[in-house]
Amino acid sequence: MAETHTATLSAELEHRLLHGLHLEWNSARDGNPDPRIRSLTPPMFAVNDAKGTLAHWNEKRREISFSRHFLSHHPWDAVREVLLHEMAHQVAHEVLKAHGEPPHGPAFRSACDLLGANPKASGSYPSLRDRLATGSTSPQDALTQRIHKLFALAQSSNPHESEAALAKAQGLMEKYRIDTLETGDPQDEYTTLFLGRPALRHHREFYALANLLTEHYFVRCVWAMACVVDKGKMGRALEVSGARSHVLTAEYAYRFILDFIDRSWADLQKERGQKLGRSRKSDYAEGVVAGFSQKLQGEKKKRPTSLLPEVVKDPVLDAYIGRRYPRLATRTRRVRNIDAELISKGKKAGRRMSIQPGVDEKRAPKGALPSE
Question: Where in this chain does the record put each DUF2786 domain (predicted)?
Fold first, then answer.
């Protein structure tokens, strides 16, 4: 369950949180290609006791204030989404000179475009996780549940049944992607979530897992700058973007694979009768991810025909990514001192892995506040 801090914040917690908001604001400003945005002066930040409003930009005070209740009950990606929305109000007033316009008028919408902000992220706007937790019955959510049930069937002890369920789930995801491309869904049908929490350093397997999700789950993964509130510094978070149904499925696959790695790694250490270091776990975990990726690739090849051509471009997702990350760059990583035997064992475990039940579990998101 999310920790709640509904009564009072300690001075230390409030300071860390306000500092985190300031760092995120600076990062959004400094990383923007528009020189007008980069010339902005930071506002003041505050925390308030409002429950009906997520956050508010006060033009006269030059202040962005956040609801303590919102901060206590939502993860940092939701907080950052609302911060960008309020920053767009600031840009509308101070850069685009939107005096006399309605709050969400043309200048505000232009500011959202400049910042890659969500114009809806205010008031009673529910997060994606909230919509899932409250049992939304939209066609996309219904499709998500259908795909998840097929993943659950992939636990079958009968290898043919397991592989058939996995293949059907992947096929549904392919079909939905084709439907999305044909209907030309607008960008607001796409969404972005953090997978895991921001950190100053991420282990190797998380990079491999990001590549797997991009390759097999019709989403785009980006290592984005994000504040590590506990440390008071900017780090990185894995952000996944795509159609809502695909993002939720990728989020579940991400959690399941990491849980599988933890369990099977503990079993392997018991079998060996020794504790191995963290870098050795990364060797094994990278092997698991590679093995599972090979399994998914094999399922694609077994299907008599693929619904997707060899290379499919999603122009709407490309536009969404370009708008959200105007300065996106690709980096390569070098790995040294690996244990080939552990990687091999991980690959074998990954090829045996099947997605299991637990998809419908409605986990409450953790709040943005660090625990005391």
Answer: 145-179
Nearest to 255 by CA among 209, 200, 201: 209
**Residue 272 vs residues 104, 265, 341: alpha-carbon distances, Å:** 61, 11, 13
d(CA 71, CA 366): 10
| E strands in 140-294 | 190-199, 220-228, 233-243
Strand partners for 229: none
The predicted-structure confidence for 42-62, as pLDDT tens digits, reads as follows 999 999 988 788 999 999 999
340 CA to centre of own chain: 31
Tokens encoding 266: 């503990």
Taking the C-alpha atoms of residue 27 and residue 38, their distance in angstroms, rounded to an integer, is: 10
CB atoms closer than 10 angstroms to residue 69: 19
Residue with the bigger pLDDT between 83 and 179: it is 83
CA–CA–CA angle 187, 305, 220 (5° rounding)? 30
Per residue in 257-293, pLDDT (tens digit) is 898 899 999 999 998 888 888 999 999 999 999 998 8
User: pLDDT grade, residue 7 (50/70/90)?
Assistant: very low
Domains identified in the chain and CATH numbers: 11-125 (3.30.2010.10), 139-352 (no CATH)
Please tell me the pTM assigned to this model.
0.77
CB 232 within 8 A of CB 218: no
